Amino acid sequence: MNPALLGLFTIIIGVGGCLGYFYFSNILLDKVIFPATGKNAGRNINRAEKVRPWLFLAPAIIALGLYLAYPVFATIWLSLTDRSQGNAFVGLANYRQMGLDPKFWEALSNNMLWLIVVPAASTGFGLLAAQLTDRISWGSFAKSIIFMPMAISFVGAAVIFKLVYDARPEGTNQIGILNAIWLQFDGGFWSIVILRVLPVVIMLAIAALSAWLVWVVAQPVFQPERERPGPLVSVVRIVAALAAAFVVIACLRGLVGAVTGTYPYGEAQQWLTIPFWNSFFLMIVLIWIQTGFAMVILSAALRGIPEETIEAAIIDGANPLQIFFSIKMPQIASTIVVVWTTITIVVLKVFDIVYAMTNGQWQTQVLANYMYDKLFRANDWGVGSAAAMVIMLLVTPILVWNVYNARKEMR
Amino acid sequence: MDGMAGGKTSLSWVVNISVVLLVALWLFPTAGLFISSFRTADQISTSGWWASMFPQEQNQTLRTDTPGDPADIPQIDDVYTIDGNLFVAEGQAPDVESVQATISVWGTGSRNIDAYQPGDTADLGDGEAITVQSNGDYVWTSAEPQSGRGQRVFTTAVTPPEFTLDNYRNVLFNPNNREGMAKAFFNTLTVTIPATIIPILIAAFAAYALAWMDFPGRALLIAAVVGLLVVPLQLALIPLLRLHNEIGIGKGYLGVWLAHTGFGLPLAIYLLRNYMVGLPRDIIENARVDGATDFQIFTKIILPLSYPALASFAIFQFLWTWNDLLVALVFLIDSSGDTTVMTKQIVELLGTRGGNWEILATSAFVSIAVPLLVFFSLQRFLVRGLLAGSVK
Amino acid sequence: MATLKLTDVAKTYGGTIDVLKNINLDIKTGELIVFVGPSGCGKSTLLRMIAGLEKISGGELQIDGRVVNNIPPAQRGIAMVFQSYALYPHMTVRDNMTFALKLAKKSKAEIDAAVAKAAKILQLEPYLDRLPKALSGGQRQRVAIGRSIVRDPKVYLFDEPLSNLDAALRVATRIEIAQLKESMPESTMIYVTHDQVEAMTLASRIVVLANKGIAQVGTPLQLYERPENEFVAQFIGSPAMNLLAGEIVETGPQTTIKLIGGGTALANVPTQAADKGLKVNVGVRPEDLTAVNDDAPYIFEGKVNITEALGEVTLLYFDRVGDNDAVIGKLPGIHTGLRGTSVRMTAQPDKVQIFHNGQSLHYR
Questions:
Q1: Is residue C51 pLDDT above 50, yes or no?
Q2: Do residues A137 and A212 share a domain?
Q3: The pLDDT of residue B5
Q4: Residues of A with CB under 8 A from a CB of C
Q5: Residue C205 confidence (pLDDT)
Q6: Rounded CA separation C85/C162 (Å)
Q7: A-chain residues within 8 Å CB-CB of B200?
Q8: Is residue B236, in this structure, part of any structural domain at all?
Q9: Considering only alpha carbons, which residue of chain A is nearest residue C81?
Q10: Is the dihedral of CA B230, B232, B237, B243 positive or negative?
Q11: Does any domain span residue A112?
Q12: Which of B52, B388, C243, C259 suits B154 as a labelling partner, its CA being 20 to 30 A distant?
């Protein structure tokens, strides 16, 4: 059958089936099983009311259970068995094998890099864009443009950025805009300003901001008695502070590199094959996509800040920077956390970009692509499932946090 | 808002310029692809897309018309003379009038491509000579009848901006193009529409139960939905593929529809429940007093009122299924490749046609055009959904 | 400890839309000035211009003799209490109160002393380490006031500070503010409200704003007893002052007015002979009307349409007579059985106002 026809057929069957199920199951309940007539009418109505929610929920529960809950357990089991030995239980052998695979550690360390850079950069740019676009008359247009990549597939974005990163042999015109710009640099004054001074300034700024973050996050933990957070929160705070401290160190090292490194001026670069840095060129794609999301959410949060608190701060003598950091930022802190965690989850699942652009070559492997590699190329279900479990493990803290918050809100 | 007036204008300048920069940074990558999809392979490979807006200098090697039968070559003053236009001879222009390029310098050998000015006559040796005008008109004279192929001329010409729809014709409507996007486009559509509609229906009923019906375990179920929101679908790949194989669905549309339905449900239920819970209780209680059953309340009151939330989720699910690669790779695309979707097709092209930007750019743009259209026309709902859907 | 002087202050939006113009006002040290007026009269805008949150489009604002038109808010020596309190939700009560002092780089000892003092005055000591969300509405209001006090400003600005409180709390807080003012006799305060009870009870002087300008400035009693114009006459007092159309028939130190509907009013307002025949409105407050016997001279006669017994007084709503608005009377005690009857009413001559073209003849 023609797939389009099949599709149409499915829509009709699917939609009709769903509606039919809900309609007839309710009729059945009210008219046949527990009819609201006769001498048991009152009791029957009560019974029907007890059953009805489950009628409404049944398809969703079955689908969720089968397509999301069951696979979690099945994957745990798969990660403990070996397919080539007839699915025999092998304990942690798959994990051990994965632990010995340098590609896995490459993927894991790359993922950690992604986990720090992408949420931070997307949230940062998003906050900047939200703050700036809310102040100008054509802000909503600017917002649309920055938000637009949200609609573009990771694969489409991969093609878009492959064109940006394209390199042509020497002597021909560069058609990738990055190389075209790169070739403008010749080691002269502007090269030094843009490629040495500017990165140093930016990295100093990030390092300073991160150092401030370390202090802000870690400080309450070391408070004596007064308002010290609970042990769980303390652990989270310490971990976050360590991550921020790592960023400080990375920035300072990068800073040294930016000052002392030698640049291959005048040569077109194959950006995606430069080890270590190529991961950043892949991250740019995801940052480009996710910034719009961060901007939209944060912009709404910024607009939700009561105007009078800002006016009060003005009267109290705060300058615009102090207003931003002391009044606005704390009031949108919870939203920033939401944006950050949401992007973190996207990062953990990122697959298409790496698959389409480098397929994990040149040391750009990430967990999701590593897992796909193991599952469908090497056909090693054990190690593939073990890799999936690692992703699951990384997601779990966020999952717990979300559930905790959702339950708190419902009360 | 900065308290006092001083310095406000300069600050607003800084803000405006920063936003212009941001917008440019975010727009340029897509613009590059979009513009490239309207350029010929030659144009793309010889100059950056940003140059396409302006007239550009292009070095080309052109040939005059092939001389043909010596007897047919006209003789003027005992000299065999062939005249014509280089661009017309190369098929770059249908006739002399429509030539748009302007030759600035030209030559007869690859070593000295800038030897002559337009209007100059080049001596080719053996009594042959050629004169080339700036519009490509040439006169090729010779004492003996010319033979062989046409004379090569190396031109440096300024050509005005030029765009073409040929790429789209080739990618979308050329039945002989095995790498065309037409089939993949319809396959994507076939995946997307049922995978968008079915989860909405299932989720709407579940969301109503979770929002407005009282039963034991409700809070637990809501918590479970919130938890499932973030479960990476990577975990589901192997167990579900095995399940599909065991129950006989295998790889195919049915499998991918079911998978998308399952993966989309948590967000759908979460979004819709949050929206429905916010509907005024009075309306629902009033309907109940009026004697409506739960089923009637749901279909007659809740569903119509939840239209904005339904639209939000529909857009999410549409974008997600349209743009998806992983689920299609695992659950749909078999070795025959008949059911390939656009994302997969593009990844294939990236491998096989990595340098052919006219094909890549056009194919990619075909695949992102529909989401962009949806995005710009329904942005309102998308934003609303995002605000409601991010777990607070 | 500060004086304010507003000279021809004006506010326009986009250069064309007038919101306020020709505002001239002198405020002396230690006064509590209340801006009052109907919604949209620009009273909050005027306050925000004094605060520096809105640009002054024209004229001059002086605080202690210094022109502050272009001085940022923080350097004007003002503190403001907002309608919604505007507490920083992420800071404790203590941090809310010390934010401005920390920004001003005050020493820790100074800050602690200021907080301790303010907390004591406002009885906030037990709550200093709480977040605003853990406080009741009244407590939040006190924190907002405390945040002003610690700064020891020259001028306190209050923007409808009681309008978010419930009725009982509003009365209690109003009294607290009055006591606060008593305890700081040197401080200058400006208070915006739409509630005339707040205005009458708190103000040393009231500024009534209407029609983009000042309708009258005066003490509460001046406004009540001798309103300059019909607007103020009807804005202050509840129910509003009755206005009855008529014509001056006798002039002199006392003026006699023949009213439409047959009544005659005698007013302690001096007039000249030339005023004879002038078309005027006579203003009498409902509480000043008293019932008279059939043969005594009366200002007004009418049929009672509805009565409302409030306990200590009874309100009488009369049928309309001629072009006049329906007259309202207020009799002490409880009166039943008046509905449908015809009643004649009069008032003491010194309680009767005369308005011509909306302006009181008393101030001519």
A1: yes
A2: yes
A3: 40
A4: 226-227, 306, 308-309, 311-318, 322, 326-327, 330-331, 333
A5: 93
A6: 10
A7: none
A8: yes
A9: A312
A10: negative
A11: yes
A12: B52
In terms of domains, do B75 and B122 share one?
yes
Q: In this structure, are A125 and A238 located in the same domain? A: yes
What is the pLDDT, as a whole number, of residue B275?
87
Residues of C in contact with A315 (CB under 8 A): 51-53, 73-74, 78-80, 100
Q: With respect to residue B164, please indicate whether it lies within any of the assigned structural domains.
A: no
Q: Which chains touch A (3 or more CB pairs under 8 A)?
A: B, C
Chain B residue nearest residue C71, CA to CA: B4
B257/A71 touch (CB, cutoff 8 Å), yes or no? no
Q: What is the pLDDT of residues A125-160, one digit of tens each?
A: 999 888 888 888 888 888 888 888 988 888 888 888
**Total number of domains constituting chain C:** 2
Give me B176's structure tokens: 């002989």
CA distance C84 to C140: 9
Where helices occur in C184-326 by DSSP H, the ranges are: 196-202, 220-225, 230-235
Using an 8 Å CB-CB cutoff, list chain C residues near A314: 52-53, 72-74
Enumerate neighbours of B (3 or more CB pairs within 8 A). A, C
Q: Residue A227 — very low, low, confident or very high, per pLDDT cuts 50/70/90? A: low
| Bridge partner residues of B155 (DSSP) | B60, B106
DSSP state of A96: H
Report chain B residues whose CB lies below 8 A from the CB of A18. Answer: 198, 201-202, 205
Task: Judge if B178 and B106 occupy the same domain.
Answer: no
- Per-residue pLDDT tens for C233-276? 988 888 889 998 888 998 888 899 998 878 888 888 888 888 88
* Strand (E) or helix (H) holding C302: strand C300-309
Asked whether residue A264 carries a pLDDT value surpassing 90, the answer given is no
The CA distance from B365 to A153, in Å, is 11
* Average pLDDT value over all residues in chain B: 81
B46 and B66 within one domain: no
**Chain C hits for B2, Cβ within 8 Å:** none
pLDDT confidence of residue B49 = 76
A35 shares its domain with A138: no
Angle at C24 between CA C20 and CA C29, to 5 degrees: 120
Structure-block tokens of residue C44: 């909050």
Split at pLDDT 50, 70, 90, the class of C190 is very high
Q: Kindly report the CATH number assigned to the domain that includes residue A250.
A: 1.10.3720.10
Cβ of C70 within 8 Å of Cβ of B5? The answer is: yes
Residues B249 and B326 occupy one common structural domain: yes
Give the end of a domain, one of C211, C235, C259.
Answer: C235
Q: Same structural domain for residues C216 and C325?
A: no
Q: Quote the domain boundaries for residue C120.
A: 4-235
B4 touches chain C (CB under 8 A): yes
- Read off the pLDDT of residues B325-371 as tens digits, 9 standing for 90 and up: 888 888 888 777 777 888 888 888 887 776 778 888 888 888 888 88
> Mean pLDDT in chain A?
83
Q: What is the CATH number of the domain that holds B351?
A: 1.10.3720.10
Query: Which of B53, B202, B335 is the best mutation test for A, with the most CBs of A within 10 A?
Result: B202
Query: Of C31, C32, C39, C29, which Cα lies nearest the Cα of C3?
Result: C29
Q: Are residues C35 and C173 in the same domain?
A: yes
- Chain A, chain B: beta-carbon pairs less than 8 Å apart: 342
The three state secondary structure string of A323-384 is: HHHHHHHHHCHHHHHHHHHHHHHHHHHCCHHHHHHCCCCCCCCCHHHHHHHHHHHCCCHHHH
- Count of the separate structural domains present in chain A: 2
